[in-house]
């Protein structure tokens, strides 16, 4: 039986689950690394009164730290204590950068869900992650999604990726752990020392800003959410053609270029300056080519349409006339 104090601390997390309860049926994979955020997800989900009949706790072990195996097994002990199934998935990313690690992690989670016939995967991303992602994007250090806030429920590879805590501050998750007297959480030493881009942004940018304005995290997350809403409208207007008019509105042309690059290369990351070079040539009405990441943009005059743009694989001399 949970005490009143514990129930009060868990209530905001349970309310977040209630808001998307239907998407968890008939089962869910919980992504739990053992850190404070995912541990709060595990403890709250296990005690939620609408918990689906099938719950699989999945821990992805990249094997990049000496203690990662022990940490993964510790999560298993917690899951079994709560009466939940646990899976450890070992992965070997092709590279050690944040994006490669993230791709490997999600691929592993989707595989667990596929094997168990489960349609929903839940992660512990919270409002602070959204604010950090926006700052990372503005600082040119990545962040993913162009600084846009992720949706609470997102459909990927035939499954539902659920982020129930995306509107909650991290403090709610920490309050729940404190009320449960849970202290044995995994601490990422590189993260704590500010040795990665996200931790650096959190410590050097977000924390000082919050000292001057307590609601800065909420304001940044709100801006990221509005950015996502605006982008949803833009995405619906992007042409689906392989060749488009160079006179297309810059916001649409920029997004079309990024989409086309993503279609022809496996790694769609492209320097913003290269995209800007394409837009500059189009605005000037000039033909030319611009090397992108693993592809190139070609701009040429077509007799029937005037100046047009296409993205093709590889870089090299253009054969357009």
Summarize the structure in words.
This protein is α/β, with parallel strands linked by helices and 321 residues long. The protein has 2 domains: 4-200, 3-Layer(aba) Sandwich (Rossmann fold), CATH 3.40.50.620; 239-313, no CATH class. It is 48% helix and 17% strand. The strands form 2 sheets. It has a 6-stranded mixed beta sheet with strand order 3-2-1-4-6-5, sandwiched between helices. Strand 8 and strand 9 (295-302) form a beta hairpin. Helix 2 crosses helix 6 and helix 5 (127-138) packs across helix 9. The chain is elongated.
Mean pLDDT: 91
Q: Any guess at the CATH architecture of the largest domain?
A: 3-Layer(aba) Sandwich
Radius of gyration in whole Å, from Cα?
22 Å
Q: Could you give the order of strands across the largest sheet?
A: 3-2-1-4-6-5
The rounded distance between the terminal residues' Cα atoms is 76 Å
Globally, the shape reads: elongated
Oligomer: single chain
Record field, number of beta strands? 10
Helix content: 40-55%
The major pleated sheet works out as: 6 strands, mixed
List low-pLDDT spans: none
Strand content of the residues, in percent?
Answer: 15-25%
How is the topology of this model organized?
Blueprint: H1 4-19, E1 27-31, H2 36-47, E2 54-61, H3 68-81, E3 85-90, H4 98-116, E4 120-122, H5 127-138, E5 153-156, E6 159-162, H6 170-179, H7 189-192, H8 197-212, H9 216-237, E7 243-245, H10 250-264, H11 272-284, E8 288-291, E9 295-302, E10 306-313
Parallel strand pairs: 1-2, 1-4, 2-3, 4-6
Antiparallel strand pairs: 5-6, 7-10, 8-9, 9-10
């Amino acid at each position: 039986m949970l005490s009143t104090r514990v129930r009060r601390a868990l209530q905001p997390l349970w309310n977040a689950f209630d808001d998307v309860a239907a998407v968890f049926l008939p089962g869910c994979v919980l992504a739990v690394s053992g850190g404070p955020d995912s541990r709060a997800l595990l403890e709250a989900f296990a005690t939620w009164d609408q918990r689906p009949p099938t719950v699989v706790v999945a821990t992805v072990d990249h094997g990049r730290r000496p203690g990662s195996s022990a940490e993964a097994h510790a999560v298993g002990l917690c899951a079994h204590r709560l009466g939940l199934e646990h899976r450890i998935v070992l992965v070997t990313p092709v590279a050690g950068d944040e994006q490669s690690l993230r791709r490997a992690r999600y691929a592993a989670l989707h595989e667990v869900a596929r094997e168990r016939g489960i349609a929903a995967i839940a992660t512990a991303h919270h409002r602070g992650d959204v604010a950090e992602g926006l700052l990372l994007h503005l600082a040119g250090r990545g962040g993913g999604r162009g600084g846009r806030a992720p949706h609470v429920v997102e459909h990927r590879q035939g499954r539902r990726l659920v982020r129930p805590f995306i509107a909650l501050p991290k403090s709610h998750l920490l309050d729940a752990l404190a009320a449960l007297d849970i202290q044995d959480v995994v601490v990422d030493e590189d993260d704590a020392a500010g040795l990665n881009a996200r931790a650096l942004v959190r410590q050097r940018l977000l924390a000082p800003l919050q000292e001057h304005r307590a609601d800065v995290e909420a304001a940044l997350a709100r801006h990221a959410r509005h950015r996502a809403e605006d982008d949803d409208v833009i995405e619906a207007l992007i042409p689906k053609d392989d060749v488009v008019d160079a006179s297309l509105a810059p916001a649409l042309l920029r997004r079309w270029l990024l989409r086309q690059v993503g279609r022809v290369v496996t790694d769609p990351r492209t320097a913003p300056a290269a995209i800007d070079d394409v837009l500059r040539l189009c605005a000037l009405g000039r033909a030319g080519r611009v090397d992108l990441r693993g592809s190139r943009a070609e701009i040429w005059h077509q007799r029937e349409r005037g100046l047009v743009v296409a993205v093709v694989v590889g870089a090299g001399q253009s054969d357009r006339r």
